[in-house]
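Anyone opening a protein record will find just a pair of labelled lines. The record below illustrates this layout.
***
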Amino acid sequence: MNGKDMEAAGIATVDASGDLMDFHGLRHFICIQLVFSGVPAKVA
């Protein structure tokens, strides 16, 4: 997903305080949570 995709979907890439959306960090966080829940790492 890139900035153009997010813009087309109506998703803000910067919030009111000027912080940027970090999808790379979010992806890693979600994968880690899945592994902690018992999902095999290759599937997560």
Notes: The longest helix spans residues 23-36.
